[in-house]
Amino acid sequence: MTQPPPGSLGLQPELSAIITMFLDHNPEASLGGDTSSPVIDRPWGDPSLAIRLPWDVALISESLRDALTNLYLPQRFSAVYHVDTRDLEFIYNKVSPDNPYRSRSFAFAFRSQNYSCAFADASQRLLALAEAIFPTNAMPYTDWRNIMNLRLNIMADVAVPTSFWIRNVAWDEPSVLELARNLNFYTTFYDLGTPRIIIHEPPVVGPAALFIGCDGFPREHYWEAIR
Which of 208, 105, 100, 205 is nearest to 165 (CA)? Predict the structure, then answer.
């Protein structure tokens, strides 16, 4: 079903423009909400998360505006893609400043291109998005994309929100999936301490059950029933 354009929902023109740009980058998401606030449902195409926005555009921080107009949220990753800088930022966690992961950086050569990879501070865009996001009642099959970790107050005075970055990536989902799988493969053998990139399975379309072509449920062993 086609959703109504943001401008038809009584939103301020500037807020409508911000939401429209986000939905252009993220067609899996949709606009919802009620009289309390507008809500962007299914960021990443993920029903377990939603983004709550104020009605008054003046209450939206510059960092959140920047996030909503420049981020693509890839459905297969717990990550954000910076459309303007072409940086792919995988959501990791809050860690102590002396955590050894924060010193990990390397170049990864793949398909005749060198990619700069490193653990580093999470972007202000991601942190602003994390503040606006809330969990829904849907099953969190993606563990809320790790983004709820950034909202926890554990070690709040010393912990540093940290992401894993791959710089200057031209977005093409099949190519980026291949890059991520190869990076996981090589780090498995050469850098066992590096966390793996989580690759989410695509959503199942239609019934997930497997029906066996026979008359009712087999009463004998499966191999006897189908040979």
Answer: 105
Taking the C-alpha atoms of residue 95 and residue 41, their distance in angstroms, rounded to an integer, is 29
Q: Which of 5, 93, 79 is nearest to 43 (CA)?
A: 79
Alpha-carbon distance 43 to 130, whole Å?
12
Is pLDDT above 80 for 86? Answer: yes
- Whether the pTM exceeds 0.90: the reply is no
**pLDDT tens digits for range 15-55:** 999 999 999 999 999 998 766 789 999 999 999 999 999 99
Q: For residue 99, give the nearest of 115, 119, 82 by alpha carbon.
A: 119
Q: Which of 122, 117, 104 is nearest to 67 (CA)?
A: 122
Read off φ and ψ for residue 115, nearest 5 degrees: -110, 130
One DSSP character per residue, 3-56 reads PPPGGGGT--HHHHHHHHHHHHH-TT-EEEE-SS-EEEE-GGG-TTEEEE--SS
- Report the candidate in 26, 30, 38 with the shortest Cα–Cα distance to residue 2: 30
